[in-house]
Predict the structure.
Amino acid sequence: MSDRLAEVGELLLPERKARIDEVVANRTRTLTVVMEAFCDPQNVNAVLRTCEAFGVQDIHVVEGPLKRYDRNKKISQNTDKWLDVHRWKQTGECLEALKNQGFRIFATHVSDGARGLAELSFKEPVALVFGNEHRGVSDEALALADEQFLIPTVGFVQSLNVSVAVAISVARAVERRIGERGAHGDLAPAEVESMRGRFYELAVKQRARIAKASRSA
């Protein structure tokens, strides 16, 4: 442990420090989510909250023609500060970059060839792609996808709210990863230490803000 990490860690309560260590141990950069041209920025915030809850560190946002994604603390529960959110202007640019990093692209799409996530492998890095709320994933995303997947339903409704679809898909992907890989968190030791330091710093700043607000009340 570096001197700086130890120094910052001493400013945190033992319980908070232990919680951060546990969170970092369960973080991954080999499962990611791509949101393609969402219409409602609040759906993006809801997805950020889901991804943080399941330890998905990197999130990719392909900006659409409508309103840009903006933070909404009430919906995201301020979780975006713990994540790495990457913004893209073009779907192809985003997915090609991920493929070059070794990711397989799984695009959600209702088609004859689509499979459930339980039928797909998560041994390799995987990017789950979710499309626009109205038109779904683009033809460009489908052309670059290695697999198409769907969430089976048994009611009259054939589609789900996109933030709900992401939550279900990420939860199932994590279960599948643990079954195949034996664990979800997979950061290298150096990255674990780096992320712990980053999260310690954020937690100390948060604690300072709370203390300042209490003194002003």
